[in-house]
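Dear support,

I submitted the protein below through the web form. The confirmation email said the job was done, but the results page showed an empty box. After a refresh the structure appeared. I'm attaching both so you can tell me whether what I see now is the final result or a partial one.
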Amino acid sequence: MRMKSAAVTAALVSALSSMPAEAYEFGYPGWAQKPGIVVGNAATAPPPGLYMFNQVFTYQANIVGPGAPNVGGSATPVHAAVEASGLLWVPGWTFLGGTYNAVVVQPFIMADVGGPLNLQQAGMHNTYIVPAELSWRLGDSGVFVKAGLGIYVPNGTVTGINGLGNVGNPWWTFQPEIVVSYLKDGWNLTANVFQEMNTRSTVTNYRSGDVLHAEFTATKTIGNWTIGPVAYYVGQVSNDQSSSFYGGAINVNRYNIWAAGALVGYNFGPATLNVWAFDEISAHASGGTPIGGADTASITKGWSVFASLSYRLWAPDEPAAAPKRPQFFK
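What the results page shows now:
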């Protein structure tokens, strides 16, 4: 979801170079993965098999901050609709005492930004691949720990002079993660922490700084129903590295976002449906590149609704029972 226009990009490129600071490239929304999308995902691995999941979400927001564009005092709206389909493979392997699994997800995005920017975009976002995750159970404590590495592959829809005119990103994003869960008596208390680490853009050679995500789940399952609060934080934690494409200029723009919401789910047996929603209660941007004496820092602030349907496509055959030896009696 691109929150900046070509006009804003051109103005920032013409600005004087500034000292490196927390930021992201002109035209980039600030993250590759929508905050809040992995809440509810615990640190366990399901039984061996091939699973599929279909996710959809909508994001309804306004651009906020000292540099937020507006028309007649009205905030600039941002809307997005996203569909993603994914596969989870659990082969039943173990390594270092942990259960192995792998994931692949393909998102598609439609997004628009209102006046005065007036942008519309649609296409394929970068494919997300997790070649390896390992899940450990810590005895009978109810505590599980999962670690893995996700990768956003730069194969999305890329257009524009800097490659950010549509929903794809012309660079790799590596995403190490750590998930800790307490799962007992129907409780799912989970903290999922991961960091987006970007390579340089293949179009501009600019490198956007790292982004930290922390997503929290506290749900209770009663019968087939699951319900409880969820929350997330997202913010940039490292500096950008500019390039000659921008004359060494950095899009200085610090941001921190906190959101809270709730999740409700139902287990139908063959499939599980989860629906959750967030309201971004705090979205703060500051330190923007000065143009004409004005701070240009901005970020989006709004609400989002997610839904995910997951089900098993294939399960390994149960091992055949050993034949019973015949018994003879005198």
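Response: this is the final, complete result; the empty box was a page-load delay. DSSP finds one helix and 18 strands in the chain.
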